[in-house]
Amino acid sequence: MTMLDDRARDAVDAIGHSVADYRPPAAGFAAAQRRHAMWAGAGWAFAGSAAAAAVVVAAIFTPSPDPEVATTLPESTVVTTEAPITETTVKPSPEPEALPPPVTEPTTTEAPATTEAPTTTLDATPPGLTITSPADGAHVEENVVTFSGETEPGATVIAGGKWDAGLTEEGHWSIQLVLSAGANGASFVATDAAGNETSARITVHYDPPAPPTTEPPSEGVEFTAKATYGSCELDPPYDIYYGTADPETKVTISSEYGSGTVYANGEGNWSKQVFFPEAPYGKTFVVTVKDHTGKKKSFEFVSWAGA
Amino acid sequence: MTAQPRSRSASRDLSTGTEAVPIRAVASFEQFYERELRSVIGLAYALSGSRSAAEDLAQDAFVAAHKNWGKISQYDKPEAWVRRVVANLSVSRFRKSISEAKAVARMNRNQHVLPELPGEADEFWAAVRSLPKRQAQSIALHYLEDRPVAEIAEILQCSPSTVKVHLHKGRAGLASRLGLDGEAAS
């Protein structure tokens, strides 16, 4: 331990004590988000009045998904405080960011750099929630099912009371759930930024494949399957599956984003390269390998293509 | 299927059989926010040096994470993403000035500001902030969060060897600025 490390430890402790005293908004992120939205524009206006020579942008300026890049809202106004005051309109970015969703409490919208009176918004409308797949009452033969649907952009969707279903900016959500044999209930709750909730529930039946009615031939080869990579950074992403099966029989590899079939050779060996061109970046999904008798093995795969 | 709005009290109806469970459990954003908030504010405080702007910089990062939670929640380490955002925001003078202005604007409306640091700690973090920004970020993540080189590299999106260089030069620079010459990068 050096003196530098000693100084660092004391400095770290000081930050720790300071942050420990911090009291976040009682209502959690929703309250912080509302306050953030309320004051998003105010900072620009105050900064402009405090620094007359500084260029001030009267727009919400939030980080894009790329942490190195920031974007402005479409059609927001750029104002300079250097005389004479000029205004320029910012063109929409390729992927414009959405305004924060409406709130329940009356609140001012983002403070513009003009003298217009603030407006108020009241949101007491529950978010829409639809389950587009699978259908209620559906029977499936796979025990892993992707549930997907739509809700209000900016809302959250929780499955089974505690699991977050990933939501896109457009309001599409999806989550993979594992089913037990028989009837399975799947419940979802969408909550918007104002705390309004909507729930939906469907029942899906998992019908496991019937065991093979005939014994495999005594000269048969034990079914085995392995995945080579489990993930891929190349575009299109792929994995190579291989193993053994009864000679000259078909092996099927299937998933939500790519599939393939292959026949075992005379010695019972097989291998197959399967591409997943539509696999979403960073999303783990299941790939199932099945032999001609219905025996199967499942693997996870995740695409990092374009990283 | 379209659902109807309902009351706030959710209850699980198991009458239709077993409840399906996720193949991969993902923490809700609120859980993520509550777990990471204080340490992210601490990082923002150390790197920005502003007790008024730190909270706002952290909220900027969390709002960005919330907007993209569908994607970020699938990452192995969503906490690395939010730290990268706040580390980049905090070393930006422009963003810091905007956040300070916002804090001033709402100063009388709430008390969500951090207490002042003791003199020596303040001097230490000021020395960190005077380093080149990548060195400052590496040093802050190394000391403040006790993160290994590999994790710092993941957060800053650079190679571990680059982080080692930043840490080596950063420690040397810190020792010089704090009058601890001879301590450099040991």
Tally of distinct domains of chain B: 2
Write the H/E string of chain A, N to C: HHHEEEEEEEEEEEEEEEEEEEEE
Tally the structural domains of chain A: 3
Biggest interface and residues each? A-B, 104 and 93 residues
Count of separate DSSP helical elements of chain B: 9
Q: What's the shape of chain A?
A: extended
**Sheet of most strands of chain A:** 8 strands, mixed
Care to describe what's here?
The complex is a heterodimer of chains A (307) and B (186). Chain A is mainly beta and 307 residues long. Chain A folds into three domains: 28-113, no CATH class; 129-206, Immunoglobulins (Immunoglobulin-like); 224-303, Sandwich (Immunoglobulin-like), CATH 2.60.40.230. Chain A is 12% helix and 37% strand. Chain A has helices spanning 3-20, 29-39, 42-50, and strands at 55-58, 61-63, 70-72, 77-80, 86-89, 129-133, 139-140, 144-151, 156-159, 163-167, 172-178, 182-191, 197-206, 224-227, 231-232, 238-244, 250-255, 260-263, 269-275, 284-290, 296-303. In chain A, the strands form five sheets. Chain A has an eight-stranded mixed β-sheet with strand order 6-8-11-10-9-12-13-7, with no helix packed on it. A five-stranded mixed β-sheet of chain A has the order 15-21-20-17-18, with no helix packed on it. Chain A has a three-stranded antiparallel β-sheet with strand order 1-4-5. The longest helix of chain A is centred in the first third of the chain and has 18 residues, at 3-20. Chain A is extended and about 70 Å long. With 186 residues, chain B is an all-alpha fold. Chain B folds into two domains: 27-116, no CATH class; 117-186, Arc Repressor Mutant, subunit A. Chain B has helices at 29-48, 53-67, 69-72, 78-90, 93-105, 119-129, 133-144, 149-156, 160-177; strands at residues 18-19, 21-22. The N and C termini of chain B lie far apart (64 Å). Chains A and B meet through helix 1, helix 2, helix 3, strand 2 and strand 6 of A and strand 1, strand 2, helix 1, helix 2 and helix 3 of B.
